[in-house]
């Protein structure tokens, strides 16, 4: 569905999820993170993408996969995507997905193995978060805790 109004219900929902007003959904932005959300078998509620990124081959195939599993889809202009984006420069695609289970039993596990928990404190560069998460995952981390700073 092509969306032309900033007041569209899907865009209002995306802003509410982005602003943490909806607790059962998460906001995922950017092609790489949306691909990860797809691979991780998260329940995809919605995908919103720009008409510009949809013309790029690599992105188009990911968007096609996302739209197959999403309950709602919306194609928007770059300007409208800007109105819901976390970043100054929109990254072309946003997914709203069901929040995964992050209970302590899920993170710690029920077997006898010790969990590996990564604590991120006072991270001041968002790029570092991605690098830390990828490294933690490859090291077998079972969870990540972030502080308010």
Secondary structure: number of strands: 6
Q: What share of residues is helical? A: 25-40%
Individual helix count? 6
**Oligomer status:** single chain
Could you tell me how far the N terminus lies from the C terminus, measured between alpha carbons in angstroms?
39 Å
Give the helices and strands as they follow along the chain. HEHEHEHEHEHE
- Class by SSE composition: alpha/beta
Major beta sheet, specifics?
Answer: 4 strands, mixed
Q: What is the 3D form?
A: elongated
Which range does the strand content fall in?
A: 15-25%
Q: Tell me the strand order in the biggest sheet.
A: 1-4-2-3
Computed CA radius of gyration, to the nearest angstrom:
16 Å
**Overall mean pLDDT score?**
88
User: Would you identify the regions where 5 or more consecutive residues have pLDDT less than 50?
Assistant: none
What does this entry look like structurally?
- This protein is an alpha/beta fold and 149 residues long.
- 37% of the residues lie in helices and 21% in strands.
- The chain has helices spanning 9-18, 31-39, 57-69, 78-82, 104-108, 126-138; strands spanning 25-29, 44-50, 72-76, 93-98, 117-120, 143-146.
- The strands form two sheets. A four-stranded mixed sheet has the order 1-4-2-3, sandwiched between helices.
- The radius of gyration is 16 Å and the shape is elongated.
- The protein starts with 8 loop residues before the first helix and ends with a strand.
- The mean pLDDT is 88.
């Amino acid at each position: 569905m092509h969306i032309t109004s900033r007041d569209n219900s899907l865009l209002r929902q995306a802003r509410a999820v982005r602003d943490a007003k909806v607790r059962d959904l998460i906001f995922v932005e950017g092609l790489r993170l949306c691909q990860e959300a797809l691979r991780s078998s998260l329940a995809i509620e919605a995908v919103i993408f720009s008409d510009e990124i949809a013309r790029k081959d690599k992105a188009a195939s990911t968007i096609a996969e996302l739209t197959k599993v999403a309950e709602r889809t919306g194609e928007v202009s770059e300007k409208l995507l800007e109105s819901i984006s976390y970043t100054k420069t929109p990254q072309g695609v946003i997914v709203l997905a069901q929040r995964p289970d992050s209970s302590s039993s899920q993170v710690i596990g029920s077997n006898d193995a010790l969990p590996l928990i990564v604590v991120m404190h006072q991270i001041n560069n968002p790029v570092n978060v991605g690098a830390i998460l990828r490294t933690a995952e490859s090291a077998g981390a079972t969870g990540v805790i972030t502080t308010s700073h």
